[in-house]
Amino acid sequence: MSTTTAMSATKSEGPTVSVKLFVDKERSKVLFAESDNDFADVLFSFLTLPLGAIVRLLGKQSHEIGCLNEVYKSVEDLSAVFFRTKACKTMLLRPFNAAADLCVKLKVKIDDTNPREVFVCPMECRSYREWPVTFFRGSICKCGKDMVYIGKWPPDVDHAAAAAGSNGVFTKGCLKFIITDDLQVAPSSTSLMLSLFDQFGVRDPAFLEQKILQLNAEKITSLLKRSLTTKQAFTAFYFNAPCTNDDSYLCMLPEILHCKQEADANNRSSNVEIKVLQTKNSLSLLYAEVGVDFIDILFGLLSIPLGSITRVYGNRSSNGCVGNIYNSIVECTKGWLEPQCQMLLQFPKVAKHFSSGASKMLQAEEVEARREGDIGCCLYYCFNSMQYSFLQCHCGHSNCFSKSLKFYEINPKVLLGDRYSSSEGFVKPGVEKFMVTDDLRVLPLSLSATAQAVSESKYQFKDLVEKEFNLSKDQVMEILRAALVTRNALSSVLLHPRKKP
Asked: What pLDDT shows up at residue 6?
């Protein structure tokens, strides 16, 4: 049995993790892989990534994941006046990972978002007994001043150490893992190996070629894309096979297939009213006219962790096999995951202040705020020049002195004198109407935008009709799911499926 080491062909910079592929060259197929904790932890970390972070990391390749890229681009293009605060737009474009303190320990990290950048009021509020801080660029202090960057918050070492496994980030023990082509993960064992050989009809393992890959962040990001777009992630990754989305019409998700929803007041919320411009024969949908409530749910989807999506929708959450990673976590009964890590991966939370209509609908809880405490800071030379050091002053100036201040984290979505009754959501409440195309591109409703949509459709006005929909919670949830699997998100849910000839 030959063993070959293959390095990244395009970019070898940065740390790598090793994975051994067992390849059937005759069928051009990867049967399964073997790895240690490092690679398994990286796979499990996929579940903690917010969808907006995934779109940003994949860049132009994100168009293969349904139409999430159109939602993301809509946030980029939409004026800041439509958001509660300037920080809201930044939060959606660079959503925080609620498990960042753990993921920073991964051997290979693909998310470059830094949730530890600290911003404070540069003027009046620094002398308050309680010092307001925020972790979001573009935030405004309660006094109305723009908050400025002063340094990086030290990692929550105690929390990360308590949650992390004994030897890995999420896993414990010095284990080897077997990962199937469709990303089912389990500890390596003789019985499992024999079962796989039998399943694939392998009579002599010597006929399988072994390939040891060293995967850096770029390659891991590519594997992430494969996990969302194909059922044969390793085969598509190794042979660089093309991935195509299945844009066939979707059936409505039966209510019984949704994850069990808590019977609380949040789930008895009012239905969402929209108007749709479609063809009279119900074969094509041009756009929907919607209010702020629908837009806030749609934009809030960018802050939801991938694991929360998989928990709700199961294997129907994508055109790929990322659901199998989640199922491997759920089915872990042999103690190779720390209980706290298993709960974190099975029920991922959104980061603090990222709650929205989408997080409520998908029952993704918000993580608790960073623990309050004292900040030891230099209040003379270093502070005034914004050369800031946590815990103690390191400037070396004899005329500097330190003072301990209580800090508290402000909500970047709330301004001084904010008249809005709730701090949830990112979009400014109001009477504004928006246009949402079939592929979930969002534009302010205007005559020019609607005229352009009709013109691009090639339909005549006599062929079109406006219909009103009172969307149920299940229908809205299906639209959110459709954003990950098709370019026709609205029509796949709102129009009747085409009958096959």
From this structure: 42
Length of the chain: 501
Sign for the pseudo-dihedral over CA of 377, 378, 382, 385:
positive
Confirm if 169 and 45 have CB atoms less than 8 A apart. Answer: yes
Phi, psi of 347 (to 5 degrees): -130, 70
Is there a contact between 144 and 199 (Cβ–Cβ < 8 Å)?
A: no
Residue pLDDT, tens place only, 306-350: 999 999 999 899 999 999 999 999 988 677 888 899 999 999 999
Residue 269 neighbours by CB under 8 Å, 6+ apart: 360, 473
Q: How far, in Å, CA of 112 to CA of 325, rounded?
A: 22
Strand 177-180 to 29-35 pairing: antiparallel
> Which tokens hold the place of 322?
């990322």
Q: Residue 428: count other Cβ atoms within 10 Å of its Cβ.
A: 17
> Are residues 48 and 304 in contact, defined by beta-carbon separation less than 8 angstroms?
no
Q: What is the DSSP string of 430-471?
A: SS--EEEETT--EEE--HHHHHHHHHHHT--GGGEEEEEEEE
Whole-model pTM?
A: 0.86
> What pairs with residue 134 in β-bridges?
119
Q: For residues 306 and 350, give the distance between their C-alpha atoms in angstroms, rounded to a whole number.
A: 10
63-64-66 Cα angle (round to 5): 85
Domains in the chain: boundaries: 3-106+113-371+417-494
Place of tokens 């400014």: 428
How many whole angstroms from its chain centre is CA 363? 15
3-state secondary structure of 309: helix
Rounded to whole angstroms, the Cα distance separating 163 from 135 reads: 22
- Rounded to whole angstroms, the Cα distance separating 396 from 325 reads 51
User: Is residue 449's pLDDT more than 70?
Assistant: yes
What's the CA gap between 250 and 318, in Å, rounded? 12
According to DSSP, the residues that pair with 273 across neighbouring strands are 470
Q: What percent of the chain has pLDDT over 70?
A: 77
Amino acid at site 231: K
Q: Could you tell me the CA-to-CA distances from 55 to 20, 47, 63, 64, 323 in Å, in that order?
A: 28, 14, 8, 10, 18
* Predicted confidence (pLDDT) per residue in 56-82, tens digit: 999 989 999 999 999 999 999 999 999
Q: How buried is residue 460: exposed, middle or buried, by Cβ count under 10 Å (0-12/13-18/19+)?
A: exposed
In this prediction, residue 169 carries a pLDDT of 92
